[in-house]
Specification:
The chain is of the alpha/beta class and 357 residues long. It contains 13 helices and 10 strands. Helix 4 crosses helix 5 and helix 10 packs parallel to helix 11.
Length: 357
């Protein structure tokens, strides 16, 4: 590319300068020669059927939205994805949660990791209620300050069944999972951008940013004091999240809330996610969770559907068992076909599955 004339003003000349195709070919060739291919591999979610539909997982520059009803298991799903990536050790997940602090997420991870029989109908493991009751029982029974100082993680491991099993697994990825308490006033898109840059500069070659949830991400106050409408704000957030994915070459996984109409009818699809048209256009992948009818064994089940997918089939749906007290979904689900799939609500019965591009 010739030198940019001084009369041309770009926000950042190096970042925003045009690149001709030959330069793109040369850069790609250099990347191949250097062996810098960590981000060439998709980041697997750890749910085999979903990963198969996504061609192995989320790719660098992907924005994936996870939508659904409130309390359906969206945070459980994305935290389990983060755990899967951290445990595998190839991708650093950064979980920025605007609804729960790191200690709450730690309790959830302890419950998740305590389960031995995750795919059984009745999984066994520690619950948050058991952890809290054990801690408070000791605290109330030992009012002396010296005795209370003995209440620590070692005590928890020795006295609350299941915590030791969870800790044995958790300690393998203690330094490979970042948890951030999102601030509804301060943790803006530029702050999210800096979390990813920090990880990259610290040597993490592969990063996945998880935002729970997108509509809670604030914008910095405008210089002129004017206010954006709610749709304008969400529009800016969606564009910003996609910008992080593209500029920094990482996948971004963001939870998204549903609109009032979907909440009233108790069924959510991609087109029901709260916000303007950019909520439909910006994501490369959309995963939607819905409640399934309660089974005869009183097990709660969740339907997980891929409703937009630029890398493979969409309008595919699987039913997963949810162990709510252990904050865990079964990794494998049962494929749901017409007429039992909720995707028939969005498609003509004879249209089959298709790619949304």
């Amino acid at each position: 590319m010739p030198e940019i004339p001084p009369t041309i003003r770009l926000p950042n000349t190096e970042a925003f300068r045009p690149q001709n195709l030959w330069e793109t070919v040369q850069a790609f060739n250099q990347r191949l020669r250097s062996g810098n291919l960590e981000n060439y591999r998709p980041a697997p979610l750890g749910f085999p059927q979903l990963d198969a539909c996504l061609g192995g997982g989320l790719r660098a520059e992907d924005l994936c939205l996870v939508g659904g009803m409130q309390n359906v298991g969206k945070t459980i799903f994305v935290l389990q994805v983060a755990r899967n990536l951290a445990a595998a050790g190839e991708v650093l997940p950064i979980v920025v949660c605007y609804e729960h602090g790191p200690e709450t997420l730690l309790h959830r991870l302890l419950c998740l990791e305590s389960v031995d029989d995750a795919d059984s109908a009745n999984p066994h493991g520690v619950t948050r209620d058991a952890i809290e009751k054990g801690v408070l029982a000791y605290y109330d029974a030992n009012p002396a300050p010296q005795a209370r100082q003995r209440l620590d993680l070692d005590w928890l491991l020795a006295n609350v069944p299941g915590v030791d099993q969870a800790w044995y697994r958790l300690r393998d990825y203690l330094w490979r999972l970042w948890l951030v308490a999102g601030d509804g006033l301060e943790t803006t898109v530029p702050v999210l951008h800096e979390y990813v840059r920090m990880a990259q500069q610290l040597g993490f070659a592969r990063v996945l940013l998880i935002v729970d949830y997108a509509q809670r991400v604030p914008l910095a106050p405008r210089a002129d004091g004017s206010q954006l409408t709610e749709h304008q704000r969400i529009d800016q957030v969606m564009r910003g999240l996609k910008g992080i994915a593209m500029k920094l070459g990482v996948p971004v996984l963001a939870v998204a809330a549903a609109d009032e109409t979907a909440l009233r009818r108790q069924r959510v699809h991609f087109e029901d996610l709260w916000g303007p048209a950019t909520v439909q256009y910006e994501p490369d992948v959309a995963i939607v969770l819905n409640r399934d009818a309660v089974a005869n064994d009183d097990q709660r089940k969740v339907r997980i559907a891929i409703e937009k997918n630029r890398h493979g089939p969409s309008d595919v749906e699987f039913c997963h068992r949810l162990a709510g007290e252990h904050y865990r979904l079964t990794a494998a689900g049962d494929r749901l076909e017409h007429p039992s799939s909720y995707q028939t609500e969005r498609l003509p019965a004879d249209s089959g599955h298709r790619n949304r591009r």
